[in-house]
Amino acid sequence: MEDKLEDLQSTTKLVVIFTLILSTIGVIMVYSSSYIFAQEQYGNSNYFFFKQVIFLSIGTVIAFVISKTKVSFWMKYGHIVNWVLTAMLLATFLPGFGKVVKGAKRWLDLGLFGFQPGELVKYTVLLSAVNFFENFNSLDKNTKINRSVGMLLPLLLLLMQPDFGSFTICLIIVLYACFLSSFPRKIFYWGFGVAITALIPILISQPYRVKRLFSFLDPWKNPQTSGFQIIQSYLGFANGSILGTGLGNSNEKLFYLPEAHNDFIFSVIGEELGFIGVFTIVVLFFLFNLYGQKLALLIKNRSHAIIVSCVVFLISLQATLNMGVVLGLLPTKGLNLPFISSGGSSLLANAFGIGLVLSAINSYRKTLFVQDNPFSREDVFSETPSPISSTSPSLSEKRFPASRLPR
Asked: What whole-number distance in Å separates Cα of residue 243 and Cα of residue 331?
């Protein structure tokens, strides 16, 4: 028992350390990539730096608070929180509430700052999906319909904003949660086929998406328009070479590369820190995913383990997609680099996700403590069971299928 607890604690520390290192690099690179733009745009070179520090501090508090709650609470009421976020997505279309940025209605105007509900919806959809798929066989018909609508409506709203990047993340994470769960395999394979088939008409339904696709295949065909951003990103990596031009010495951030402090910050890292910096970021996200998935394998509560695996996969997937776009391996889409890109909504949402991971770990650690100390008060450490799963075997008695977890 002591070996299990020690392994759990050491793995948790590594995941937290990788998260802190990535966040620290993010603060440094946000300042380095934005201080000239911030001075020109806001008259304060520290504008984005202070903003990043403030939201990172708030995110740290959020992660701590969420870690102290029971993960069973989020399993039980996650679908309700998802409906609240869905209402916030709807509000982005209402005059006076929504704010249009570059033609997209993704933001809520909260006065002092804007908030992008789509960032947090990724995690509320995740919670709804895990609850729905794990308890599918015990739900009645009406509940199944309500929960299905609760998952699909946010995806539809993300498409309407439009936010194809967040839509893609949500769709993949729903399929991933379904695959890891005890959902009937036959229905899953049919649903997977329908989802992938539906992506094709969605992808070509908007002219700008088709334009991005052709620009991705041949950016030099339109170097001054649709291919401009990715070509500038290439130049950033080329300038960086192996060791980079040095921190703060990027040329691309001098109004050549759009979104240098946000979606394309990875290119600035490549220019200023070179291949060494790029390789370091890739390794950090790889280790974050590796040890995060190891945590999921260590947790014996099936639903909690799926939540941990899904959160880690979501963050790692978004990082992979962002780096693929910046390197020109994928068509351009609006996805930032988790923990590193400038953006308060993303930081707060990812902090919520990390809090869920720590909450699941704390719950399992308390279970080990109770098993190791039979005279302890069991009611203090026991998890509140989900009412919809009361007819099925206890979650703590189920074993998480290691074969379905990525290694």
From this structure: 27
* Burial class for 278, CB neighbours closer than 10 Å (0-12, 13-18, 19+): buried
Report phi then psi at 28, rounded to 5.
-65, -45
Q: What is the model's pLDDT at position 157?
A: 93
The pLDDT value given to residue 215: 77
Residue 292 near residue 257, CB atoms below 8 Å: no
Number of domains composing the chain: 1
CB contact at 8 A, 328 and 172? no
Phi and psi at residue 324, to the nearest 5°: -65, -40
Range of the domain at 399: 2-404
Distance of alpha carbon 223 from alpha carbon 10, whole angstroms: 49
CB 354 within 8 A of CB 323: no
- 109 forms beta bridges with 114
Low-confidence stretches of the chain (pLDDT < 50) are: 375-403, 406-407
- Could you give the CA distance from residue 270 to residue 249 in angstroms, rounded to a whole number? 11
Residue 391, pLDDT score: 41
Cα 279 from Cα 296, distance rounded (Å): 26
Q: Which residue in this structure is represented by tokens 């947090």? A: 120
Q: How many CB atoms lie within 10 A of CB 138?
A: 14
Calculate Rg over the CA atoms of the chain.
Answer: 22
Q: What is the pLDDT of residues 123-160, one digit of tens each?
A: 999 999 999 999 888 888 898 999 999 999 999 999 98
pLDDT of 178: 93
Residues 181, 138: Cα–Cα separation, whole Å: 14
